[in-house]
Amino acid sequence: MGFMDNVIDQLCIPSSYEGVYHSSKRHAPMPSVETLSEIVSRLRAVLFPGYFGHAEIEPGTMRYHIGTNLDKIHRLLTEQINRGHCFLCTLDDMDCDACEQEAQDICRRFIDSLPELRRLLVTDVMAAFEGDPAAVGPGETIFCYPSITAVTNYRIAHQLQNLGVKLIPRIITEMAHSVTGIDIHPGATIGEHFFIDHGTGTVIGETCIIGNNVRLYQGVTLGAKSFPKDEEGVLVKGIARHPIVEDNVIIYSGATILGRVTIGKDAVIGGNVWLTRDVAPGSRVLQNPADNH
Amino acid sequence: MGFMDNVIDQLCIPSSYEGVYHSSKRHAPMPSVETLSEIVSRLRAVLFPGYFGHAEIEPGTMRYHIGTNLDKIHRLLTEQINRGHCFLCTLDDMDCDACEQEAQDICRRFIDSLPELRRLLVTDVMAAFEGDPAAVGPGETIFCYPSITAVTNYRIAHQLQNLGVKLIPRIITEMAHSVTGIDIHPGATIGEHFFIDHGTGTVIGETCIIGNNVRLYQGVTLGAKSFPKDEEGVLVKGIARHPIVEDNVIIYSGATILGRVTIGKDAVIGGNVWLTRDVAPGSRVLQNPADNH
Amino acid sequence: MGFMDNVIDQLCIPSSYEGVYHSSKRHAPMPSVETLSEIVSRLRAVLFPGYFGHAEIEPGTMRYHIGTNLDKIHRLLTEQINRGHCFLCTLDDMDCDACEQEAQDICRRFIDSLPELRRLLVTDVMAAFEGDPAAVGPGETIFCYPSITAVTNYRIAHQLQNLGVKLIPRIITEMAHSVTGIDIHPGATIGEHFFIDHGTGTVIGETCIIGNNVRLYQGVTLGAKSFPKDEEGVLVKGIARHPIVEDNVIIYSGATILGRVTIGKDAVIGGNVWLTRDVAPGSRVLQNPADNH
Amino acid sequence: MGFMDNVIDQLCIPSSYEGVYHSSKRHAPMPSVETLSEIVSRLRAVLFPGYFGHAEIEPGTMRYHIGTNLDKIHRLLTEQINRGHCFLCTLDDMDCDACEQEAQDICRRFIDSLPELRRLLVTDVMAAFEGDPAAVGPGETIFCYPSITAVTNYRIAHQLQNLGVKLIPRIITEMAHSVTGIDIHPGATIGEHFFIDHGTGTVIGETCIIGNNVRLYQGVTLGAKSFPKDEEGVLVKGIARHPIVEDNVIIYSGATILGRVTIGKDAVIGGNVWLTRDVAPGSRVLQNPADNH
Amino acid sequence: MGFMDNVIDQLCIPSSYEGVYHSSKRHAPMPSVETLSEIVSRLRAVLFPGYFGHAEIEPGTMRYHIGTNLDKIHRLLTEQINRGHCFLCTLDDMDCDACEQEAQDICRRFIDSLPELRRLLVTDVMAAFEGDPAAVGPGETIFCYPSITAVTNYRIAHQLQNLGVKLIPRIITEMAHSVTGIDIHPGATIGEHFFIDHGTGTVIGETCIIGNNVRLYQGVTLGAKSFPKDEEGVLVKGIARHPIVEDNVIIYSGATILGRVTIGKDAVIGGNVWLTRDVAPGSRVLQNPADNH
Amino acid sequence: MGFMDNVIDQLCIPSSYEGVYHSSKRHAPMPSVETLSEIVSRLRAVLFPGYFGHAEIEPGTMRYHIGTNLDKIHRLLTEQINRGHCFLCTLDDMDCDACEQEAQDICRRFIDSLPELRRLLVTDVMAAFEGDPAAVGPGETIFCYPSITAVTNYRIAHQLQNLGVKLIPRIITEMAHSVTGIDIHPGATIGEHFFIDHGTGTVIGETCIIGNNVRLYQGVTLGAKSFPKDEEGVLVKGIARHPIVEDNVIIYSGATILGRVTIGKDAVIGGNVWLTRDVAPGSRVLQNPADNH
């Protein structure tokens, strides 16, 4: 099978694999999607006791289950945080012990924030139940609704991102994106009592700021309009370029809102609208009516 | 690691987990997504013999495979139906034996309906093959097309919902939603010979009524326009609030149709249209042309 | 449980299962989605060494890993190609040895094309990195971005389709569709340096021709407008019916472009636009502004 | 394939399957070997913290891990105990609730006995370490020695048997038999500080009574000599028919000791001996020397 | 890591791997231990309905389960039989179609023999129950006793061997050997109502002939005494060289009986005996008593 | 469920878990039996190409498979060697980097020795084939015979032990012990062309020295006779206390040979013999004949 030797030779020439080959620093392996998936499952079991985690939980034994899950999360997540840092590390002169210590610290701070993270999710569950006449109870939304899945992953990822974690937050939101079709960048800021009905195709960009009590539908884009480049033609990263959506706004399915515009408090944006300008508080923006032909 | 004891304490305070904790009645466990997934796989093997189920099937042995699958489905589904009822049970004075008996009866009636369910799916397969010039044969649509996946789950779920099953139907349609991006509420009513091409992002609401021979594309929303609340500000559940789509209608990608409107027979709705009014039979509704800028 | 015997009887009547029963030729089993999934995973490990494949790879050992993966791919894919042919085989007088030999030949030619396939993917990775200000490095796009997942599956499937493989290419693009919400038909032709941001709901039809350096967003449809039928009312297959998109075009989210129209070089198509006509090179097409109400 | 219908017919005639068919009472399924295996794994994790159970355990988090394991053991074992009773149930007029309650009570009493069970195992670990010059530390015996595996399963099974559990104890000792070749009947009584070196082929019968500080080697049989039958020729069950082995006895490999004989304190029994009589305390019994030929 | 290239070179020199390398004929893969394990599990489910096979079985649905299992066994076993033949094939001029046809025929004849095979196993179950005072019912012996496991595998393997199958029978008896410590060669001939108590270490050689109603204990060897070689010093294969054990014989633990000797009807052989001569019907052979020292 | 809190309290008192709790140094986890099992499987695939490893191997692709396996073995085994050292580490002032470096060095030396290890195994395969008239070819012994399984694990473990590895060698021989019933201590020294027929219950002690061309049967013990203790009553470890077995010796089933005795060249030891003295070269030792009673 000499033909194969030939292909293998070509695929092993450095010029062939340059740009698509990952060479790890000090043998640090890639972050593990499987382990991150286990971590998120355990977090879900901690945050929504009795709904997830293969365990019937009673108040009398809850401590044990939450404690065991947190202990595992602590070990597993610390390592994944460190792998995330190694993935992007460009130092020749590495101080790996310092990175490992930092991963420890970040992980602890993340675990400390779980009660607050759950407090926010309680409001999201209420938003889902109150916002959908088809919901028969809050429990149904926790167990079945893509919005809760996507928002839980987002809130976890956002908190990790705020604590300085690299790469891992994006993997966690992409997990939810793949399962729900809802793509929330971990860098976005989202207030309490948030709900996305149906959700498939909704995109929330990196620098979005969303207030409290906002409701979106499927196929809504909160995106960027243009990407300034620097003098050398390279995209400038980190500029605020996505919409601000204030409290109590509703945006219907398929609406596209681009750029650093502000959708004022209590506004309603109709379906399929294309918007690149500010919208005053309390106003309603609808598409022009379609014609018969 | 005293810091963890502190977090665990906070997470175990009843006020923290109120609203996100599931306390099961009489130790009835949660419905199992894994088991429901097995049930749906076995139903697929029964409905489409030879395509699914890890078995080459010949007419001479078909009885055995279908019989074995139905026997397993019968046992597994009866239990899941019962768990679905327990999930929502609010009685202090439970008569669990009666519930178990009811789950038995429902399950039998569901199995009795499988020949009719398959008859409908045969028409859906023909619709997919006839509706897509890229399809090379009906078999390809059964094995590869998201529409068949989503419509099969929907027809199973809808039949269960009609028989009075709780929660399980929604889990079954959400399974298909996650895999196909097509979100059909189990309460919707859909006629024969139904096809959704590509499908990602299409949403069909709870009270929709869809006739025979209807074709949708990706990103179509058949949703609600507003949600009446009662005097106490609580959403009124169960009101007819989604479109009626009559026979032979075609709705192109990205169209959004909201409210209890009627899209008359043979109508064609263009892509990206936003519609909240009735459409006469046979008419064509298109978006206004976009301008150059 | 006599009720079950009755249902089984009904489900085993030929008129019940006609059209949804697959009877294999000479006991050739169905293509295996699991095996195809393994094949694609191994291809990913070959194409992006160090990113996928559960292995840290160093230049010194790369040959072994790539060689082992290609040897497995060779065996597994040859069989799947053959099963794809059997699936559609309608001959009474089969020459299975000839088919097996052809599967061998196709598989070798496919493997021979992997260096070129990787060359294209390198340009796609650069397109993703350069096109998204949120990307922190090319590695992040390889490991996390749905676009790379979907385009990799598409390029594999397209090459197989060009070599005459049946059914398998469609299964491979549907795998990516299910995970990313991006639906690219394996028959489409796509140039270098291609990127789809976010991607959920984007559809690229069978006869599309896309140039170099094109960028799409989520929810974009490049579809067919109408399907000519022959005199007997059967869809005519294989007609060029999807758009041509020339170099450097950008199409924003939710745009729907239908029919054999040409979007000229450097054009920009705004979000939510509905287009069924040619667009001149360099022009910008935007939706009419939405009104306040 | 009519030949198969014929075989199936024969295998479904009641006279064919009589005696090898299990018909469950009220649909109680068979005890699950997989679940019992999980239960024993979790018990091992509880009894030997840090050695088993996929968890690094520190004193500060030990409570959580042990609590979680005990909660799972409690649920799983209660059900298995009940299934064991159903397996042997011959009542027409069943009171299943009473059985379930009894299973609950037994399970609690079993869990209450775990500290004492661990105390015994600590002495067995010391016996293994002190009795084998090849052992490099007590930890090695816990992690590697078949004796610890077999004796742990035996002590668990014996305690369950004492509490009145049916069938389950035998399954648990057979699990260890299969893995270690050591066959200890759960009915046997064994004192502290017990060790079986190598162990393959050693058999300890149902009515054996073994004192403290006893050491056996591989291939030792402590069996019955004859089985009295009653007037109808049926074996009389439950008669004391196996040896009594007093404190500090050593029995070397391949020795066979049959019947209700007593091996007195401090006796040493040589390898390959065949013994059916009492042995005085402190004596040594060896095989006659083999001859050259 | 040049050191590894060097080792790999050495391991790939033909003189290094000669004798331990398997080069398959026409790419026929090795028999699969996993698949054979599945086949044996399904056979166990067919032979002992309700005890094995993850299914509660009722008379009314038994046909379906047995039919499905036999259909799977038929496909899987036919292929494994063929692989067994390929494994030993030394022909240059192969007629693989003939071999595949033969595998088909053998497999059918094997399936035809299952009712008789079950009839024999029913007698073995009774032998186990009647022969062990510790057994609480025949069901316990089916579910828990190594003897039933080993004898079931043996009877399957022996039937396959009689039908001319290569290699597979030995793999099947080795599976049971590994799990029970009982090593029965598939070539041995064993009558009805056979029981081996405890069983670990018992060996029954290729040319043994065992009558009805025989009971063995653990550690019994029925072996060969010497192996005649031909003029070139090569072992002569296939010579009758193991004991004949007539009806109703009992052989206690650790007895070693070597050579083509006959143990006459109703004889009893004591534990640890070493025997290389005929034993008259009805006689008792015991080891000389061990002495005190 | 307060009763459980009470049990948990008792199980977490240090005096309860002392002696059965493993506290890892610097969070080094326990050696992983699963990973060691994977390592041994990969070694088997390297040593016996084409027989094991889920791959058909041809000379033209052998390098890739062996290279990939060795690269994985190298990574996995280095870590396990290190864990073995941590398991026994008692230092307060650890230099973990030095240990890791040593693990690297040992692992390389082990891999360097694989060609010699395979050379020995080739002779063992010939011994098995030549020594058993029931063997139909050398390939059957590689694929099916417990002797090859046990001796392969032993030779791997012995080499690791010679290189100074802790704990891991014993785990590897215990894996084979569990599956075959053959218990060979990794410290034993065994020459070329070694075969154990049937093997269940055979034990070869730590300080045994076995020459070339030796054949054993099942149930043979090469053990220690007495264990000298030091003044404080503690067993003296490491003393030569097991038999020396010279070239060409045959030992039949159930023989027990204890102490530092020498079985001279070409000697034959009969079954069930109990031996604690030297045996002259060429002599035959048999048990006294059993009597009729």
Automatic annotation (TrEMBL), chains A, B, C, D, E, F:
Keyword Transit peptide set for record: no
GO annotation, biological process: amino acid biosynthetic process
NCBIfam families: EPS_EpsC (NF041874)
InterPro entries (UniProt xref): Hexapep, LbH_SAT, Ser_AcTrfase_N_sf, Serine_acetyltransferase, Trimer_LpxA-like_sf
GO molecular function, a single term: serine O-acetyltransferase activity
Protein name: serine O-acetyltransferase
Signal peptide from the UniProt entry: none
Pfam families: Hexapep
The keyword Kinase is annotated on this UniProt entry: no
Native species: Desulfobaculum bizertense DSM 18034
Broadest EC class assigned to this enzyme: transferase
EC number: 2.3.1.30
Record field: catalytic activity: L-serine + acetyl-CoA = O-acetyl-L-serine + CoA
Family listed: Belongs to the transferase hexapeptide repeat family.
Gene3D superfamilies according to UniProt: Hexapeptide repeat proteins, serine acetyltransferase, domain 1
UniProt keyword list: Acyltransferase, Amino-acid biosynthesis, Transferase
